[in-house]
Amino acid sequence: MKKSSPLHPEIMAEELRAWGRVTVATHNAGKLAELADGLYPLGLKVAGVEELTPPVEGHDSFEANALLKARHAATALGVWALADDSGLCVDALGGAPGVDTADYGGWERLLDALKDTPAPRPAAFVCVLVLCSPDGRHISFTGSCKGEITVRPHGAGGFGYDPVFQPEGALVTFAEMTRAEKQRASHRGLALQAFYKWLA
Question: Which pTM was predicted?
Fold first, then answer.
């Protein structure tokens, strides 16, 4: 799924291909690594924003927060910027932690909050990627991965809530998958696939 500013998205794709590089607006090393891996096949050079102070996120949607970060980096640095806002939405918690996932307190707090909720405990990871041009035009891509919260953590890979999220149809958690396996199944991987189709 994709949404764009009113200007023609195909022109944006041509301009980005000509530019040849994209700046990822995140200070999260795990996200940067996953996005860099995902963008590598497109031939785009990827850089981070270590020198840029991040904006204060306060919106109630993934897309609005991603747009805030992408536009902040694009206009401050004069680059094509890609930002990710993502989170875990748990049915038994009314969709929480949602946009507050990063500040929720980790999978330990999540398991404690669900200790009286029997399995299966449905949840979904959601990711919105927003690409913003130096002059402020933008386009967004969404990916969603359904699954459930496990009773206890499994695996040592990934980051964040990966040890307690088992995607639908899988027998292991994200933390037990290789990076390539997770990329194919995850919310971020699905959003990147939509980005590929647009850029191609």
Answer: 0.89
* Helical pair 29-39 and 187-199, crossing angle rounded to 10 deg: 40
As a whole number of angstroms, the distance between CA 83 and CA 142 comes to: 12
> What is the band of 1 on the pLDDT scale with cuts at 50, 70, 90?
very low
Domain boundaries, the chain: 2-199
- Closest to 88 (Cα-Cα) out of 160, 196, 8: 160
The secondary structure element, H or E, covering residue 111 is helix 106-113
- Crossing angle of helices 9-19 and 187-199, in 10° steps, is 90
For the ranges 6-15, 46-55, 86-95, the lowest mean pLDDT is seen at 6-15
Listed residue (137, 135, 164) closest to 149, CA to CA: 164
Structure tokens at 54: 């991040």
Residues 101, 52 contacting (CB under 8 angstroms): no
Asked if 192 and 38 touch (Cβ cutoff 8 Å), the reply is yes
Question: What CATH code is assigned to 2-199?
Answer: 3.90.950.10
Q: Provide the phi-psi class of 111: left if phi over 0, else alpha when psi is between -120 and 50, else beta.
A: alpha
Positions marked catalytic = 85
